[in-house]
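**Fold in tokens:**
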Amino acid sequence: MTTPPQREPQERAPATPRMNPDEFRQYAQIIEAEVGQIIVGQRDLIRQTVITLLAGGNALLEGVPGLAKTTLVRTLADVIDCSFSRIQFTPDLMPADIIGTTLISEDEQGRKVFRFEPGPIFTNLLLADEINRATPKTQSALLEAMQEHTVTVSKTMHRLRAPFFVLATQNPLEMEGTYPLPEAQLDRFFFKIIVTFPTTAELVEIANRTTGARTPQIRKVANGDMINQMQALARTVPIASHVLAYAARLITATHPESKEAPAITKQYIRYGASPRGMQALILASKIMALLDGRYNVAFTDLKAAALPALRHRCVLNFEAQAEGMNPDEVVQGIIESVKAE
């Protein structure tokens, strides 16, 4: 008979006042503005990263080197005054290097005791840099933390401190020596965010900010307790039954075996999005509504959230790869095929 993991004792969090929608919008805008002091342009990147944070999810960033992916999460951690850890994923990285390990040490009486030494995963914001360079065994060390916000070591379950947010990066160019993330792990990412190359004007501004004598200064405008309150408020946003039904139709339309699947799905998709995809759609849409000053979810919110929420959850077939189709084109075709009614 297997012994269930033991839970370490938890302190009861103090009661905090509830945040209202106006405060939610104000703090979110201030956070975005402060991050924008360091990150030039990339408004969609900043907005989608903040949405993922306020939804209590995890983000996968894909882009070529040098696009400030690491700077983004470090700046975000400073702005919301939360702890930050960075792990550089390499082929020789082991799970214990991430979650920690149990050591043998001596207590005050000189007796040998086991002591758990926490790894860098015990933080608020974790940057998993180039996550696809580590082996699947090491990648799997993040699965429990990303989904349940717990870490189990030696039959003891340790709960991670809220808020907890994993921002992982991967380079789409250098694929040699990498291990593509399995679908089960991709599905645990709330959003997959594409980091685009800056425009000419943005490159000039980047050069001015990073090569001049003056360095932009950012303020700490929030804290972990505020983020927890914002996450709780986002879940209270109502969604009408017909809007919820539209979200369900979008998810169903990504499955080629479904009778409601459009032609583009049956032609190019092998596997569709999971229920986590719908959860991401709904939560992201609720946050978008609050950021827009509304207290209800609209069809436009679901359409705006569909690409980052579904692009990594739709597995393309060989025909799509042969014709050079990418997930964004397929998801966009699905959005255009499913009517909002």
The radius of gyration is 21 Å.
